[in-house]
Amino acid sequence: MSETKSPLPREVADAYVDALVALDPVTGTYLGVKESSSRLPDFSPAGREALAELARDTLAGLAEAERRPGADSDVERRCARLLRERLTAELAVHEADEDLRAVGNLHTPGHAVRDVFTVTPTRTEEDWAAVAERLRAVPAALAGYRASLALGLERKLYAAPRPTATFVDQLSEWADTDGTGRGWFEDFAAAGPESLRAELDAAAGVATAAVVELRDWMRDVYAPAVEGAPNTVGRERYARWSRYFNGTDLDLDEAYGYGWAEYHRILGEMRQEAEKILPGAETPWVALAHLDEHGAHIEGVEEVRVWLQDLMDRAIEELDGTHFELAERVRTVEARIAPPGGAAAPYYTAPSEDFSRPGRTWLPTMGLTRFPEYDLVSTWYHEGVPGHHLQLAQWAHVAENLSRYQATLGGVSANAEGWALYAERLMDELGYLTDPEHRLGYLDAQMMRAARVIVDIGMHLELEIPADSPFHPGERWTPELAEEFFAAHSSRPADFVESELTRYLTIPGQAIGYKLGERAWLLGRENARRRHGDAFDLKAWHMAALSQGSLGLDDLVDELSAL
Q: Name one Pfam family in it (predicted).
């Protein structure tokens, strides 16, 4: 009888993806797995424990796989390092019972239930039949989520009051999007075929009723129970979440100091650009307010979508062959308008594994119909090209040279957000942001990311504001001071600022990954440039960097430096 060989790390990682998709059909849908389209996950405590048990079993299998001959090759080693780091970080979050207080204005099970419909296939009648089945699964999914939150209450593990109030408001909007009694699910189902009209309408009604039931429980039971709980998480919980989102154990005090250093540097550049737009402006944000009224802008929701599509298409045409080498299927990306009832920030969704669903950028309009250009250009370099789209689509394109896990589920937030912020800076370096309006908008976005490091770490750890700060020096951060600081150093409207601060309270440690990730990418590039000298090839470096899959920040610097 022949001896069965134990798997190598990449095989262990890919087996994990298969097993996870069976437990989590939302993940399956984002990957493009057709069989996932009709189901939703079990968000109950038992469902979350099943995911944790899968992670534990996978780590045990990985330890055995690393002892096999060939496991020390670069591709196997890199995959093993990522898989171990990610699963260990995820288990730390689970074992601290963070699943039992997952409430906020994005990235909760409630948001996952709604948002997955925006990427569920809807091309054929068969697709829509699966949508109807998935709609009928909404009540069980939300009931499981509610069971987890109820267990959290029982164990006195409370979500923050402010994100809780925001989530209740969001649920109300999903239940009745325009005040006419029709919910988000009814609006979504309305695009289905007439042959399934009665079934879709009935299923959408069932889904909306479940949203209403969750909303009422959150409002009448959960919100009163968490009233008076802290809105911030403290150093221990913050360090755990920071590891989860950044893939490394950060020196949080050093990172806080770096945020302030970037704040001062960027502010100096902003003042120079503002002087070109509105000489004598008291602050750069006075000049940006001037642009809100008098700067270049796009009128109309469909018009701004077309404008953003053209911006990305032109970037692809001009960067491909010069600074990147793009496969044909990576060259396709779509600009979309985000559905109402979500957070205020733009976002990106990656293509399915087979590219049957392309990468897409999403613009929340927040009810607006007039869009200043300065607020869009560098943002779409970040979300689209050469930002999130080029990285995540390239991972999918080279998946066969990595592992399925590296190309999809193993993403480290700070790696991806750091690349996207690096992409904005790259476009500035390449001369795409010479227009004073566009460059001031880019610097405003950079300042927002520096402010995120300051306020996210500062308020959760209740750190002292430095003596050289122009804002409340010597005081200790609170969410109220954080919101005031953010508003004073951003061109964004009040509803965006409020949404942002709620986001930081919802997912502590994630917002710092933009600037800290950018720092890692820049350091890796500089190290590689020094190593190669005059022979350094930026295009080759970009493509090698984008083809290695995700890594935590420490590992990322090591690998980028060696390219």
A: DUF885
